[in-house]
Amino acid sequence: MSLGILGNKIGMTQIFDELGNIIPVTIIKAGPCFITQIKTKFTDGYDAIQIGYGNIKLKKLNQPKIGHFHKSNIKPLKYLKEYKVDNPNDFSIGQEITLDLFDNTKFIDISGKTSGKGFSGLQKRHNFSIGPMSHGSKNHRAPGSIGMGTSPGRVLPGKKMAGQLGNSNLKVKNLRVVQINKDENIIIVKGSIPGKPGNLLNITMVK
User: Fold this and answer.
1) Can you give the pLDDT at residue 158?
2) Could you write out the DSSP letters of every residue in 117-185?
3) Which of 53, 85, 106, 160 ranks highest by number of CB atoms within 10 Å?
4) Among residues 196, 203, 190, 178, which one has the least CA distance to residue 25?
């Protein structure tokens, strides 16, 4: 089973352990989430559950999502995420999933979108070297040749070029759980995680 929970990044800080060592940590608000749909091999071809997270006004949803929540008699939720499970009969529609899921869990995996940095050149995006900085040079930060003039006479796919930097999915594995506050739905992990404060995160147990 690879069940997880959704949450938001609050920010980073540092704490001290028993020996006085500084530990950089990230604070995450995780859950509560609610099961909005249960899929089985008989109805959908595979076993999975869908969970929802984050309150949202009904007027901000489109008609298919409104119908989806109305069918399950669930209050509107902003984010939906699906997890494959071994036995979907262990779950029920509307069931609340909280940080109790991570009891006795020392390490977790967290995935989210990295911070977007806009259109970036080759030096920043791919660590290319610059050209000569002398006055006669016309190649300071230019990419140089990107393909052949004859055969095949085109730019090959996957060529490292300037473009969008960041804003991509990233998964950080084996983050140590430092502290869990179930009353406030707060989980604290050692190290950094993707994205800026407020970023949506997918938190799962280490397989």
Assistant:
1) 92
2) --EE-HHHHH-PPP---STT-S-SS-----S-SSSS-SPPTT---SEE-S--EEEEEEEEEEEEETTTT
3) 53
4) 190
The model's pTM is: 0.82
Structural fold of domain 4-116+168-205: Double Stranded RNA Binding Domain (3.30.160)
Contacts of 58 (CB under 8 A, 6+ apart): 66, 76
Measured between alpha carbons, how far is 147 from 128 in angstroms, rounded to an integer? Answer: 17
> Given this model, what pLDDT does residue 190 score?
93
Q: How far apart are CA 67 and CA 78, in angstroms?
A: 14
Residues of the chain with CATH 3.30.160.810: 4-116+168-205
Pairwise CA distance, residues 201 & 112, whole Å:
5
Distance CA 138, CA 135 (A): 8
Low-confidence stretches of the chain (pLDDT beneath 50): none
Give CA–CA dist 174/111, Å, rounded. 11
Task: Determine the longest span between alpha carbons in the chain, in angstroms.
Answer: 73
Q: How far is CA 46 from CA 3, 13, 40, 180, in A?
A: 15, 41, 5, 32
